[in-house]
Write a structure and sequence with these properties.
- By secondary structure, the chain is of the alpha/beta class.
- The chain has one domain: P-loop containing nucleotide triphosphate hydrolases (Rossmann fold).
- It is 46% helix and 16% strand.
- It has a five-stranded parallel beta sheet, sandwiched between helices. The protein has a three-stranded antiparallel beta sheet with strand order 6-5-7.
- Helix 4 packs parallel to helix 5 and helix 6 crosses helix 7.
- The two termini are 17 Å apart.
- The structure holds BIS(adenosine)-5'-pentaphosphate and magnesium ion.
- Magnesium ion (MG) binds next to helix 1.
């Protein structure tokens, strides 16, 4: 099972890059933020619980998040590998992932950090719109949709995330950057961490991410997923 991790602060561009890399590698994206947002939308007990933390800009507790991720990794479409967007977010989550992969005689192939300075993160999140159907991200200045309010890829309506309000953006950055450092330390220790400059245009970042993954020994598969699986 090939597991590639996209790491970065809130708003760094993980969700923008993940489907582009998925198209290249032919494995699906698993994004814990998208899984939580789907649970919130469906009004499940998990969604009600997660929402309290998301709206406060805090991380959802590790036990809930690890259970959700492992359940998703057990589905058939993840058998060959996945690109993880937004997981792991703590040292505990990183260790739980290592253990689950070791049980399958596997390990994380590459962890790619998309690096963006904090003032740019605020600009990116406050101008972001995402689509209802699949969470495809747009930005009102740097990457607007062709038709205002409509997703170029699937035609669904665009909306602004409740956690992209200015006070919640500040809370997310204040509360989550410390645990990102913990995760970076974990992968620096295991020798799979690579970083790319996330300030460049989207397609340049995509090339740098793909180069980092190829340098880690992963080759593109034939056929694509379309990058839409979540
Ligand atoms: P999640 O959905 O994962 O949010 P996040 O990590 O805060 O990251 P974002 O989705 O905000 O940013 P992104 O890096 O995907 O950026 P994007 O590509 O959209 O998590 C949400 C919440 O769920 C968390 O706060 C937490 O509560 C909970 N949660 C999720 N996972 C968890 C876990 N593992 N443990 C515990 N809790 C968890 O890009 C941002 C904007 O920038 C867009 O407008 C885009 O168009 C634009 N942009 C992207 N790239 C570029 C570029 N190169 N140049 C110019 N603009 C760009
Ligand atoms: Mg995202």
């Amino acid at each position: 099972m090939d597991v590639v991790i996209l790491l970065g602060a809130p708003g760094a561009g993980k969700g923008t890059q993940a489907p582009l890399l998925a198209d290249r590698l032919g494995i699906p994206v698993v994004a814990t933020g998208d899984l939580f947002r789907a649970a919130v939308r469906d009004g499940t007990p998990l969604g009600l619980e997660a929402r309290r933390f998301m709206d406060a800009g805090r991380l959802v507790p590790d036990d809930i998040t690890v259970r959700l991720l492992l359940e998703r990794l057990g589905r058939p479409d993840a058998a060959d590998g996945v690109i993880l967007d937004g997981f792991p977010r703590t040292g505990v989550q990183a260790k739980a992932l290592d253990e689950a992969l070791a049980e399958r005689d596997s390990a994380v192939c590459a962890a790619v950090l998309v690096e963006v300075p904090e003032e740019e993160l605020v600009r990116r999140m406050s101008g972001r719109w995402i689509c209802r159907a699949a969470g495809h991200p747009y930005h009102e200045v740097s990457s607007p949709p062709r038709v205002p309010g409509i997703c170029d890829l699937d035609g669904s309506e665009l909306y602004q995330r409740t956690d992209d309000r200015p006070d919640t953006i500040r809370a997310r950055l204040a509360q989550q950057l410390g645990s990102l450092d913990e995760v970076l330390e974990h992968y620096r220790g295991s020798g799979v961490l690579r970083d790319v400059d996330g300030l460049r245009p989207i397609m340049d970042v995509a090339t740098a991410v793909a180069d980092a993954v190829v340098a880690a020994g992963l080759a593109p598969r034939t056929g694509t997923t379309g990058g839409a699986a979540r």
